[in-house]
What we know:
162 residues, mainly alpha, 61% helix, TatB, protein transport, cell membrane, transmembrane helix, Sec-independent protein translocase protein TatB
Amino acid sequence: MIDFGFDKLALIGAVALVVIGPQRLPRVARTVGHLLGKAQRYVADVKAEVNRSIELEELAKMKRQFETAAHDVQSSVNQTIHETSESLNQSWQSLPGGGGPEGADAYGTDPVPPPEYRHPKKKWRLKRGATPLWYKQREGVQRHVQSGAARVARFRPPRNTA
């Protein structure tokens, strides 16, 4: 930018005092200060925007590099898996019995049938609480619903029939 020293600023101030006059000089100086501040803020905003765009370009480049590296790793892993599965299939076919029918083991014996399905016999309509029964028994929590008359009959003292 332009390099203003103290002597140049003093010369500009003296010329402005003569041309503008002592009455309007403070208002003009204030206006010039506001305009210079706005210009500095505008330049700072432009610099920040340029820096942000440069950083975004760098991030996009890094993203592309990571994507290509991930793609290379994925392709190498897929290739290794494919080669391993091929070698396993070849070794499976080379076993006695040639791998045999589906479900049979490598020696041609009959396959073991899978266990039969048994229904879990859950009572789906029964509401189950999360509190264990042993805890309810220890703490004396009521587990069954009783009517008022049944509760009274349960806790009524026995009659003396003598």
